[in-house]
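> example.struct
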């Protein structure tokens, strides 16, 4: 089984061929919401496809414009087993007030994750120190999705018990390749962030491309593909045990 721990299949990019995309290979997908509408769409997708696990969250980019959707998004957390997409984004958001609001929103989801025992799949773009500080002060299981920082930060997250997730862009991204080589394989996960971050620039990404990430990891670390697959599966299921229970219906 392939595991895509972070994707956005509710997006218009998949309107025409979602059925096909989800049946092209043996893959299970954690579909992350970024606002209220996509949170609800993630729940709906999961009711339609056995191999989709819904996650709800609130993307840090939306803290200014969509704050009125926060409470409803928070209350949807009780309906799912994974919290995503949440985190900090200092790359697009520069104003100190908005960054502060991002930390407050992220803290609310961290508290829910801690209280309800739910893992978080987290977006961090800029603001890595603040994100790791917040993670360090909560008892949560987590993964940093589409990790784009340096190896030192990745290892700090691993020290906190976190996983580092790699999308298929790994095949053409030297920085991510260098980071990957410095991590223990026991902390590595695969995702696609579909429709983004694919193996080919400007081509729609999709969940089955996880296979390309696994191949690349195998060649980078010099281990057999099936061994890499086995370790990554084990990692994924320790973060999100509910994936084990998904069955065709
Ligand atoms: Zn995402």
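> example.seq
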């Amino acid at each position: 089984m392939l595991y895509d721990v972070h994707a956005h299949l509710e997006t218009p990019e998949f309107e025409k061929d979602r059925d096909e995309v989800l049946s092209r290979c043996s893959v299970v997908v954690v579909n992350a919401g970024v606002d209220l509408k996509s949170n609800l769409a993630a729940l709906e997708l999961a009711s339609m496809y056995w191999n989709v696990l819904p996650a709800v969250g609130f993307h840090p980019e939306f803290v200014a414009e969509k704050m009125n959707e926060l409470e409803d998004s928070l209350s949807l957390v009780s309906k799912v087993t994974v919290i995503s997409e949440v985190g900090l984004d200092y790359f697009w958001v520069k104003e100190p007030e908005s960054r502060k609001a991002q930390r407050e929103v992220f803290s609310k989801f961290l508290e829910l994750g801690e209280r309800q025992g739910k893992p978080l799949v987290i977006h961090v773009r800029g603001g890595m120190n603040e994100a790791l500080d917040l993670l360090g002060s909560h008892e949560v299981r987590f993964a940093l999705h589409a990790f784009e920082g340096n190896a030192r930060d990745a290892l700090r997250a691993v020290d906190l018990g976190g996983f580092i997730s790699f999308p298929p862009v790994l095949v053409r991204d030297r920085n991510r390749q260098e980071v990957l080589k410095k991590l223990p394989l026991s902390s590595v996960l695969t995702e696609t962030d579909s429709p983004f971050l694919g193996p080919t620039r400007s081509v729609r990404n999709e969940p089955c491309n996880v296979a390309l990430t696994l191949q690349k990891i195998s060649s980078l670390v010099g281990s057999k593909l099936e061994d890499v697959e086995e370790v990554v599966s084990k990692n994924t299921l320790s973060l999100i045990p509910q994936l084990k229970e998904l069955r065709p219906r």
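> remarks
The CA atoms of residues 112 and 241 lie 18 Å apart.
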